[in-house]
Amino acid sequence: MIERRPFASLGGANHGWLDTKHHFSFAQYQDPTRVHWGALRVWNDDTIQSGTGFPLHPHADMEIITYVREGAITHQDSLGNQGRTVAGDVQVMSAGTGIRHAEYNLEPGITRIFQIWIFPERRGDAPSWGTKPFPKRERSGQFVALASGIEGDGDALPIRTSARVLGATLKAGETAEYRFTDTTRHGYLVPATGKVEINGVILDAGDGAAITDESVIHLTALTEAELVLVDAAG
To answer: For 68, how many CA atoms within 13 A lie in the half-sphere containing its CB?
Structure first.
């Protein structure tokens, strides 16, 4: 089953400095039919104005993955970590027992990100943070694990849950597929750019596809497309 969730149907708010859309219930947007998708709890589509950002604030017991679509995000946290993650790259923060962090757009133009939260499988671990470049040429025509807690995904940034965050870029007319280990897995796919067909369902940029009871998904790019997919436990 694949349920298309059009971008226009998403919750969200425009705060001036931040224009945000929520695929799942978050902040003032509450929808009892869209609280989470398996272990996937949050997928926010954020546009952050230059010179602004999220001031220091706390998290605990959550795997927080930031996929930068445009511009760059500059991170600092209570562990002393500092870093800048640019478009196409990924940062992961395992909040663990607790961490405070700030995220700012210090670039001359806007920054666009997907912020993805996944429930961890255990509690009580120390918090951590990391970032890594993932050249788009390496995921041309195929899905590549960007963050993962699944054995065998050693090149991905580690997360503390049985899930993968994957990226792919497809040229117009190009196809790709992804196989789930079993039909109890919950997939969620969003085109960051472009238009694609997934098992007969058409998605425009920003639309979500909630996937379950599928062993494999087949994708065809109707235009050049950049895709992000989460494969999470049910």
So the answer is: 27
196's enclosing H/E stretch is strand 196-198
Instruction: Indicate the burial class of 154 (C-beta count within 10 angstroms; 0-12, 13-18, 19 or more).
Output: exposed
pLDDT digit string, tens, across residues 68-91: 999 999 999 999 999 999 999 999
Q: How many residues does the chain have?
A: 234
Q: Is the pLDDT of residue 8 over 90?
A: yes
Matching residue, tokens 């196409």 = 88
Residues with Cβ < 8 Å from 126, sequence gap 6 or more? 96, 97
Average pLDDT over residues 170-197: 97
Tokens 């639309």, located at residue: 207
CB 203 within 8 A of CB 225: no
Specify which residues 53 forms β-bridges with: 104
- Distance in angstroms (rounded) separating the CA atoms of residues 190 and 126: 31
CATH of 2-232, one of 3.40.640.10, 2.60.120.260, 3.40.605.10, 2.60.120.10: 2.60.120.10
- Contact status, residue 45 vs residue 15, Cβ threshold 8 Å: no
